[in-house]
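Person: I keep going back and forth on a fold encoding question. Show me how you would write down a chain together with its backbone fold. Please set it down just below, with no commentary around it:
Helper:
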Amino acid sequence: MTFAAGVAGLIGLVGAPSAGAAELALQGSRLVVSGMLDGSAIKEFNEQLGGGTVHTVVFEDSFGGTAEAAGAYAEAIRTSGVQTEVRGQCMAACAYAFLAGKTHRFGYGGQVNGILLPVAVRPTAAELAVRWRGDEAHKTLADFTPPSATSVTSANNASASTTVASAAPTATPVNAKPVEASMAAVKDAPKDTTKDNWQPEHGVLFTASPTLFGRVYNTYYCDGTQGRDFSKCERLPDADPYKLGVLTP
């Protein structure tokens, strides 16, 4: 597949995101989760996984959510030992929960599948090799968690501590506003200059597009400035999602 064709697949993949809360649908031994992971369905999600009949959690077109909800979904998935799968798009909060599966894969079918894993800065080749394996995957959540008041420089503490503390995840309930919305307040607050927080559409994007010769995988680094025009993302060479542990056989 050419780069242009891959980009065309990306544009078709993202479309117009739904701002709706997470919805659950049980399909035999598969639990389909769609929409934003805002925490509104976490109780039902835990109950479904606790019943012992769910073997696979399928994330379908989930465009983000809150850090707290991502952690709650990931913990439930990890504890129950179920597999995870992506159909369509899985971004940020969804991606973190996806990585918690005993195995984590892209679904089959004619759709373009994509997963956007948040990062603070462009990862090096060495970082990519271990970034999403085992315990290292837990760092993904921290990358899109707003900075706490303690991360603000002392010179700005007096004027900014209240603003930044209010944006910190420890002060936000599970069903808080999505990360995409909460980041607006953080953007105007003084930030730790040693780290750029995750912004919407900022991360490493892995895609799988169907072709006549099988599925073709591509990997891109998106710095967030491109919005939903993923043609502006940088294609990363030698970043196969299976080799990097993002997908499992």
